[in-house]
C-alpha cells in the first residue's frame, strides 16, 4: 500500500486529495510566457499535514524544504537531514493538500554522487510521498543530473545562489554574488539548470541585480527567497513569516507574531490548570441527567 493513501474516516486529514485538480508542472512552467510572468507564483514551505491544509488554497506550490532540519528537528543545518525525514513529511503534506503542487527537497548526500543515485533517491521520494517534483541544490555541476532525472519522468526544481547544503564550503548563510566573478557564476548556474530541464529555479540570497539578470536570461520561472521582487515568484519558510522564531533573516517579512501568541496561550493555560480553573463543567464528561 502506498504511504499516502489515507483512511478519511479515522483521520483529521480532510480533504483527501482530489485527483486531477492539482497544479501541474506544465501549468507552473506556462506561467512564464515570452519571459514575462503576469501574476507572480506563490510558494511556501510546509512540513506537516495541518499546515499544508491551511496554506494549500493560497499557494501554487508547497515546498517540503529540508529546512525542516532546523525548523522541526532543531538540527544545526540541513546537512544531517535524511531521505526518511523528507519522505515522511512529504507524505504528510501531500495528504493535507489538494490544490498546490507539492515539491520535496532532496537531502544532502542523496543525489550529488551520480545521476543514478539521484534517480534512486528521487524515485523513492516520489513513491513514498506522492509529491509531483523534487528540488535539488547546485548549478552547472548538477545540470547532467537534472537532465537525467527530467528525461526519466522526474520533474526538478533547481536551486542556485545561496545553497544552504553547502554551508560548510561557503562558511555561512550570507548573500551571494557580491563579486563580479561570483555574480557571473550564479547567472551561469541558473542558465545551466534551466537548460538541463528544471521547470523552475529557486534563487536564494543574491544581490538584486543578479536576480534581475537571471530572471531575464532563463525561460522558466524563478522563485526568489532573499532575491528581490525581480523574480517570477516568491517563497518563504512559513515559520519565519509567521514569526515563530526570535531571529529571522533580513529578507523575511513577518506577517504575524505567533511566538508571542503561543506564549500567551500557554501562559494562560498553565495559570488556569494551576488555579484549577481549567477544565470547567463545559469540558467535563458527566452522565446525562
Ligand atoms: O529548505 C527550504 O526551505 C528551501 C527554501 C528556503 C527555498 O530550500
Account of the protein in words:
The structure is a single chain. The protein has helices at residues 25-29, 49-55, 68-71, 83-95, 115-129, 143-150, 167-170, 180-196, 208-217, 238-241, 258-274; strands at 32-33, 36-37, 41-45, 61-64, 101-105, 133-135, 156-161, 200-204, 222-225, 233-236. By secondary structure, it is of the alpha/beta class. It has a single domain (3-262), classed as TIM Barrel, CATH 3.20.20. The chain has an eight-stranded parallel beta barrel, surrounded by five helices. It has a two-stranded antiparallel sheet with strand order 1-2. The longest helix is centred in the middle third of the chain and has 17 residues, at 180-196. 43% of the residues are buried. Bound molecules: 3-methyl-2-oxobutanoic acid (KIV). 3-methyl-2-oxobutanoic acid binds next to strand 8.
List keywords for this structure.
two-stranded antiparallel ribbon; TIM Barrel; binds 3-methyl-2-oxobutanoic acid; alpha/beta; 8-stranded parallel beta barrel; disordered N terminus; 11 helices; 289 residues; 36% helix
